[in-house]
Design a protein that fits this description.
Elements lengths: L13 E5 L5 H12 L7 H6 L9 E6 L4 E12 L5 E5 L3 E2 L8 H15 L4 E5 L2 H4 L12 E2 L9 E5 L10 E5 L14
Parallel strand pairs: 4-6, 7-9
Antiparallel strand pairs: 1-2, 2-3, 3-4, 3-5, 3-9, 6-8
The protein binds coenzyme A.
């Protein structure tokens, strides 16, 4: 008699998936390892605090065991008072033990493709031009834009997904994302 053969697909070594609430603790620990505690003082944080990432635009990279090895999220912002809608990308981080293995680039390519697919017109970030330049980001059109807090002007970079979105854009970036729901108050008996 022939025995049934069970075919088990091998797990992918790494996979980019949508972040879930169960990933939050691991993502925060990864960000602390990769960026240190000062990360919370960045002016980008002002645009993220109390908000949820843009719908469908929070990703983690998992290894074969399911551990979070990379993270990237994008946030809804407005470019100046009444200005066009755009996304703010960040933080992007990779587990320090896995640097330079292509994880950051894979997360970037996935995030940009999903943002374009969802119809977003432009993405901004504060980061190193030598790294983000390879994905098309530059400071060419951010000269009249500003972050709501201290930042290095030459590190404010942008990528247009729809050509011309940033023409004439000016002013300080404003948070425009969905607000986090307040946690229900619990009272001690
Ligand atoms: C920056 C970071 C996300 C890159 O991810 P990664 O998976 O290590 O990078 P990748 O494997 O995709 O790319 C590696 C390439 O990027 C280059 N690179 C990495 N960080 C760079 C930086 N800050 N500036 C310029 N180049 C950089 C590497 O030298 C390498 O170049 P090569 O392709 O010519 O060899 C990651 O190193 C990280 O988490 N750093 C700490 C957190 C951080 O700084 N986040 C970005 C905030 S701006």
């Amino acid at each position: 008699m022939k025995m049934p053969v069970e075919i088990v697909d091998p797990l992918p070594v790494l996979a980019i998936v949508a972040e879930t609430p169960a990933d939050v603790a691991a993502r925060e620990a990864l960000l602390d390892r990769a960026m240190g505690p000062m990360r919370r003082k960045k002016s980008s944080e002002k645009l993220r605090r109390g908000r949820r990432p843009s719908e469908g635009l929070a990703f983690v990279m998992r290894d074969a065991a399911g551990a979070v090895t990379g993270t990237v999220r994008l946030w809804d912002v407005r470019l100046g008072e009444g200005g066009p809608a755009a996304l703010l990308l960040g933080p992007l981080a990779v587990d320090p033990s896995l640097k330079n293995a292509g994880i950051g680039s894979a997360l970037m390519r996935h995030a940009l493709a999903e943002a374009a697919r969802l119809g977003h017109a432009a993405i901004l970030l504060v980061g190193d031009a030598p790294y983000y330049g390879r994905f098309g980001f530059s400071a060419n059109k951010t000269g009249s834009l500003a972050m709501p807090g201290p930042y290095e002007r030459h590190r404010l970079l942008a990528l247009e997904l729809v050509e011309g979105t940033l023409d004439g854009a000016h002013g300080t970036l404003k948070a425009a994302g969905r607000k986090l729901k307040a946690l229900p108050l619990t009272f001690a008996a």
